[in-house]
Amino acid sequence: MRLLQLNVHPLKSGAIRSVDSAAVLSRGLADDRSWMIVDATGRLVSAREVHATFRIVADTPATDSTVVGALRLRTRDGDGPADLEIDVPAGEPVAVRLHSQDLLGIPAPDADAWLADALGREDLHLVWCHDPTARRLQPEFSQEGDHTAYADSFPVTVASLASLRQLNDWIAERAVEMGEEAPEPLPIERFRANLVIDGDVPFAEDGWHRLEVGGVRFRVAKPTSRCVMTTVNLKTLTTAKEPTRSLARHRLVGGKTLFAAHLVPESGGLISVGDDVWAE
């Protein structure tokens, strides 16, 4: 197998930033999901509630060498506020809520006005994860010391194009059964994986325990459960029934629809598109 895509998401629910190479740290890919948007209560505001966050292009020096600060924000279509560069915030950490987890983050107030202009809400704030090591992961699937920043569950996700091909076949078959027009095949970007690999066997990742990419080792923690965000078209921001409908039919386990797998780094290093991938 080979690594076909490497994706970093500096801003949680922001636009996907594809890179040629990425540093793997114990917390995941460098700068992945280090920033997130919260409301006035400190609760995560993601693309589940505000689809337009997908149009925010957030870059760091890890995703774009022209960034001179800690983070640059711009809108994907260029029709929003002017680009904004901010430095690492220096304030005191505040309580934030990521789904059911109480975490901490340092506010970046210089971004407040920019977010209000870009998303049309005055109650939004940007926070930075200053200490990923303080985050603990799901104990039944993790080991002592595993940690990450503002990813939903685990540091890294891997998705297979073989699995996507099977899913798109299921979607087309279901459309025929329902008398619907067959939709365009879903792109792998719907699943916002960090690592995208090729492969021959659909859902072979269900049986993997470890993965090695370009000499960097990962432990497979668990399959990735999918939410409504996968139903949002990343370009038009419209929603549809798929892939949830077909995943619920073919990949429903314990009340959760599954696609891709969560990984925890067991070593660090640089990985690059084109690297060989081994699984066991």
From TrEMBL:
<dbReference type="InterPro" id="IPR011037">
    <property type="entry name" value="Pyrv_Knase-like_insert_dom_sf"/>
</dbReference>
<dbReference type="InterPro" id="IPR005302">
    <property type="entry name" value="MoCF_Sase_C"/>
</dbReference>
<feature type="domain" description="MOSC">
    <location>
        <begin position="130"/>
        <end position="280"/>
    </location>
</feature>
<dbReference type="Pfam" id="PF03476">
    <property type="entry name" value="MOSC_N"/>
</dbReference>
<dbReference type="InterPro" id="IPR005303">
    <property type="entry name" value="MOCOS_middle"/>
</dbReference>
<dbReference type="Pfam" id="PF03473">
    <property type="entry name" value="MOSC"/>
</dbReference>
<protein>
    <submittedName>
        <fullName>MOSC domain-containing protein</fullName>
    </submittedName>
</protein>
